[in-house]
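Researcher: I'd like a structural prediction for the single chain below. Treat it as a standalone chain; there are no partners to consider.
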Amino acid sequence: MTSRSLRALTYVGLLLGALLLFRQALAHEGHSHGDEPPPPAAAAPRAEAHSDLFELVAVLGTDARLWIYLDRHASNEPIDGATLAMSVDGQEVAVERAGEAVYVASPPAFATPGPRNLLFTITAGEEMDLLPATLEVPAVAAGVAAPHGIAEDAAALLRNPLVWGFAGVSLLLGLLLGRLASPRRLPALVEEEPAPAPAAAKHGPTPLPKRAAALVPALLLVGLLLPTAASAQPMDAPRRQPDGSVFVPKPTQRLLGVRTVMAERAEAPVAVQIVGQVIADPNASGRVQSPQAGRIEPPEGGFPTLGSRVERGQVLAWIIPVLAAQERSGVQASLAELDAQIAIAQARVQRLSGLAGSVSAREISEARAELDGLRQRRAAVESGLNGREAVRASASGVLSVVNAVAGQIVDAREPLFEVVDPARLWIEAVAFDAALVAEIAGASAVTTGGQPLALSFIGRGLALRQQAVPLQFRIEQVPPGLSVGTPVTVTVQTPRRAGGIVLPSEAVVRSPEGSQIVFEMPGAERFVPRPVRVQPLDGRTVLVTAGLDRGARVVTQAAGLIAQVR
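Model: Treating it as a single chain, here is the predicted structure.
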């Protein structure tokens, strides 16, 4: 056989092995390699039933036991501590509690495939109901009595005669290709003594046909083992269906905390959303500025820290005037002149006091008054040179701004402190369409972190600010930790009313395309996205005006997590 034919045979073997591997990868349990892939379904057989009170999902596990999940139908809230009685085709089966709101049963009727009629009797407190359901037991699940492990899968694989047949064919094909690829001794042509083979030839790389022949059995073996590995992968997981709906099994719903409400139509006031920010109440706050240019000195105990509480009139800092050299020399000259005048006046008072019987009392009192005036003038001039002025708090509250540093030179009217009362805060917002906020029936706000705020309207400004009407609101109950300058979204309610479905704001999420959607729950484990048109009501609720029917079960909690399922 020539090397070309040997290479061709090797490639044919590789192609057969690859085709077998590809065939086994496609033809796994559930459909053949020539079928179209069906939509994803739950891995385990399951049945569901519901009434106005309860919703039940029964899942047949790999251990042939029936796992039962019980919830409230309207709210999807798990029910723990309920009493369940179950019958399978009329035969009573015991049901035990396996965990929080999880129950388990071991019916012997699941040993054979086929449909099973289930009837559940549920008692939760004073509520009682009967739920019928039908469970289709497949042949694969009926033959499973215990969870499969690696040893069981290997034993089942070895019991299959096709495995031994494919293994034998693979072994023969590998031996044949190895035999054909082995080197043969050729007769000498001209040389009497053969030249020694180079060292590289003895230890060179294995020829391609021999390496390919060794890969064929490995490819065939992997192709045979692939279905077993694929069947061991967990399939009961959240996933998005081809029709756009989302499958979320009950255990995952418990972890995510999925909750629902029944959609009911109602009337609500039409609202408008505008942007704003938190400001301090001007009647309970103050700004402390430097009364003159000078150097800052701390009071006894140091400067008050940021966030500390101060009282009105409390000394926050001292300002020592700073004079230029020319100004200082002028003040010192005035002091020297005043000292001379004081000495003259003091001598005159002493002289007149010694002549008390010879001069009138009026002259003595005038001399003393003149001396006192000179002393007061000197004290005033000296205080401007070496004195200091107190910087006091203008209101009682908490320091929100501290710009004072010891030794700092400040100008007159430079802000040093800001005092805010944290229990009295306002919100200032701007509306670019004055007609929308012409009549305000109520208002609320929500921070960027989702914290709602109840507001009362104070007033609107007549002067436009950046082509917008300023509006001011008072926060009724200020939550702890709210800071001045926090951006908020203000929802202004008008007297006009509109009909729709009221939902919590977290029920509305964004789709990958950017549109607003809600998730309807038509089944126990199926969620369908519904595009909707909404209007804001307040910081916690919205009004769905289109896209949702009355009576639908809508997800109100964990909708954002369901939207992330791929």
